[in-house]
Amino acid sequence: MKSILSLLCAVAVITVVSGQGPHYNRYDNFNADSIIQNERVLLAYYKCVMDKGPCTKDGKNFKRVLPETLATACERCSPKQKLVVRKLLLGIRAKSEPRFSELLDKYDPGQTNREALYSFLVTGN
């Protein structure tokens, strides 16, 4: 459970960056593995984006840009950011498929972009 929060934290950071354009590289070298292992942080971000708990500043930014990131399958992300976002989303999914599904259902309720998102998760493109 804590790992999910850490992953969401990292996805939040990358998602915020991806909303600023494809060449913004502040988080290109972000350590996704360290986030995956921090379940406490991951859970806090998960609760934030799911409206089940308080949000930090990063959490609020993530919540703001998450819909676009999921809707476009990280289209505006740099290649390095795509690797990190993909790794984090796959990590969230591996830690808790129900939470991963709940996240997707909240931010893509019509399932309009599931095929592209799943393709991104498989191929990285």
Structural class: mainly alpha
According to DSSP, the number of beta strands is 0
Spell out the helices and strands N to C: HHHHHHH
CATH fold type:
Antennal chemosensory protein a6
Mean pLDDT, to the nearest integer, reads 78
Give the overall shape. globular
CATH class: Mainly Alpha
Distance between the termini: 28 Å
Radius of gyration: 13 Å
Helical stretch tally? 7
Mind describing the biggest β-sheet? none
Instruction: Tell me what portion of residues adopts beta-strand conformation.
Output: under 5%
Instruction: Indicate the percent of residues in helices.
Output: over 70%
CATH superfamily assignment?
Answer: Insect odorant-binding protein A10/Ejaculatory bulb-specific protein 3
Name of the CATH architecture? Orthogonal Bundle
Fold and architecture overview:
It is a single chain. It is globular and about 30 Å long. The longest helix has 17 residues, at 2-18. The protein has a single domain (2-123), classed as Insect odorant-binding protein A10/Ejaculatory bulb-specific protein 3 (Antennal chemosensory protein a6), CATH 1.10.2080.10. The protein is mainly α and 125 residues long. The protein is built from seven helices and no strands. Residues 16-23 have low confidence and may be disordered. The relative contact order is 0.20. Helix 1 (2-18) packs across helix 4 (57-72) and helix 5 packs across helix 6 (97-107). This is Putative chemosensory protein 13. Residues 1-19 form the signal peptide. Pfam families: OS-D (PF03392). InterPro entries: A10/PebIII (IPR005055), OS_D_A10/PebIII_sf (IPR036682).
